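Sanity check

After download, print the first record. It should look like this:
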Amino acid sequence: MILQYHHVDEATPASTSTTPARFAEHMAYLQEHEFTVMALPELLDALKDGRSLPEKTVAITFDDGYDSIYREAFPVLKKHGYPFTVFLNTAPMEAKGFLSWAQVQEMIDSGASMANHTVNHPHLVRKREDESEEQWQVRIRSELKDAQREIVKHTGQDYPILAYPYGEFDARVKGLVESLGFIGVGQHSGAVGRNSDWLALPRFPMGGNYAAMDSFATKVNTLPLPLEQVKRLDREGKALSDAVVRAGERPQLILQLASKSLAQALQCYQQGKALPGKVEGASVHVRAEQALTPGRSRFNCTARDEKTGRYYWYSEPWLVSSKEGQWVHEE
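Expected structure tokens:
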């Protein structure tokens, strides 16, 4: 599992914040239940190389580079001896509320790693007004390459791992990220396995209500859903190249699993409501009951393992434009 935090603070936006007390509880839980906490680059290298990992393995990550990571989270992590990764958007470094490079270096000296979250934290999939495809390509490449250059300059670390700002990506963005040799990390839920999409790895967000201890305990004990194929369809049953749809759409998802019994146990949800599913052998077919509205949405699919009580988990993120194909809050 890869855990995602933003602020570790009581005075920041609740939806992206974990209180210092709750964060300390999370770390204590990992220690008490004998989890192996690995540095994210080490974890990903092990999976890509096919090496076996301890049964309960977690990587801890933070997005954006807020100074509460240093003030509140770092002392707790250092006490437990846990490595962690900070995804930095480099433009606000040294500004009020954000990390300084000196703080970054102090954390690196205690086992932290720094990775890429772009320069300016843009919505990567969105073109600016009157921006051509070529101009968009140049701008987004610069966001990644310039951020990486700054991180290498100040830290000496050069991990080709990108956390997508806002967790947003499409086939075009993934292709660009792949061309630059990066691994892509999202904000959709689920456990990571050898068969995961290396351009869209899931993480468990730990802000707001998602940080509750019962929810935390369930999520850090999850397993990657053993998938053989994923198909995305529009309401008419036509194949989608990625999970980007227009408002009003009711997309469909077909998951081909490794076993019929797992397919029978699988339940998918949209915004907390169960989606009706059709099971055919080891294949599960679900569709949105309600039309999607502009912004971000997702299907979460889980199945409980009867022997261990742990959950297999898969999340499909949908990125929804307006009915006209425009984005909310266009840059």
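If your output differs, re-run the checksum step. Summary of this record's structure: The longest helix spans residues 133-155.
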